[in-house]
Amino acid sequence: MLKTNQDVFEILSEAISEGILIVDENQTIIAVNSSTEEMFGYDKDELNNKPLEILIPKNYHKGHGHQFDTYYKNSEKRTMGKGRELYGARKDGNTFPIEVGLNPFNVSNKKYVMALAIDITERKNYTDKLEKTVIERTKQLTEALATEKELNDLKTKFLSLVSHEFKTPLTGILTSSILLSKYKLAEQQDKRDKHINTINSKVQYLNNILNDFLSVEKLESGKVNYKFTEFRLSKVINEVIYNANMLLKEGQKINYPENIDDISLIQDEKTIELALSNLVHNAIKYSPENTIIQLKVQQDQINTTFTIIDNGIGIPENDQKNIFNRYFRAENALLNQGTGIGLNIVKTHIENLGGTISFKSIENVGSTFIITIPNKPN
């Protein structure tokens, strides 16, 4: 380029913050401004008369020469890399995202190409961060919508469940009370007793449901006060099994845990009894006749572990993630009485006492529930 033109280029280009470089038909760098040298990590005048390829990452060298020749012959103003990302190569070998605009021009009947280069690292980082944020927010929204749908489904199931759970015993109570009025003779006392027992059991069942709802309310409001005392575990186990024996189906049996006479705990006795009763009653309810329910106990220096094993209907794999959710009932358990509150109450109580509850289950094979509780409050 002519000296005068070079002077004009230097005056104009140094006033521009973007990188400017000029190349000839041989892709030789004729001139650059200081912004280009700083952007690519070169000293002053170090890029002059160097091949353009030193500013292009090696993995892009193969096709660049042909692309440049094609552009040079049909030169027009345009932006490089439309629809794809461009990268520049610094002197130290590091690459960075770049935006390049091409402008052909003629000086003394000789054609040159001026490139305007902008380092878009910050912009790309912002864009990438924004894209990640959008993807994450979209994911969160999708999960929230799925959760809301799941909750709505649970509410619908719960309303249907509660309606059924209250309607069935109330119908039994009404039927028995009507039939009672028909048995007026002294010799019909046994029939009257049968219906009185039916009414009592149905009322007790409804009372248990209401107590479950009250337990939920107390747990949510933080009104539960635990009473920690030292007690022999065998006392609680005996109470749980005694009550459970009255619920056993034909041929069912509960295996009493071994070697528990010397085991003691400092815990809330009633809560431990409630948790074990719930799990043992579930094992009975969801197991067929002529099956064994196993109750095992182990204690070390820190924790006591209770394991309840049944050979019942099990929990379908798709339902297992929700089994501790309030009001949830597995699809294969909907025909059995229950509100879906018990396991949620047990889990909340056990965790309040510093323990954990977990389970393993295979549909149509059986379930194993494990409670681990500290031997004394933390």
Describe this structure in words.
- The chain has 378 residues and is α+β, with helices and mostly antiparallel strands.
- The chain folds into three domains: 3-119, PAS domain (Beta-Lactamase, 2-Layer Sandwich), CATH 3.30.450; 125-220, Helix Hairpins (Orthogonal Bundle); 225-374, Histidine kinase-like ATPase, C-terminal domain (Heat Shock Protein 90).
- The protein is 44% helix and 22% strand.
- It contains eight helices and 13 strands.
- Strands 1, 2, 3, 4, 5 and 6 form a six-stranded antiparallel sheet that branches. A five-stranded mixed sheet has the order 8-10-11-13-12, with helices on one face.
- The mean pLDDT is 84.
- Residues 5-59 form the PAS domain.
- Residues 161-377 form the Histidine kinase domain.
What would you call the quaternary organization? single chain
The first-level CATH class name of the largest domain: Alpha Beta
**End-to-end distance, in Å?**
84 Å
CATH topology of the largest domain: Heat Shock Protein 90
H/E element order: HEEHHEEEEHHEHEEHEEHEE
Q: DSSP strand (E) fraction?
A: 15-25%
What's this entry about, in short?
This protein has 378 residues and is of the alpha+beta class. It has helices at 3-13, 34-40, 61-73, 121-180, 189-221, 233-245, 269-285, 342-352; strands at residues 19-23, 29-32, 78-79, 86-89, 95-107, 110-119, 228-232, 253-255, 264-268, 292-299, 303-309, 356-362, 366-374.
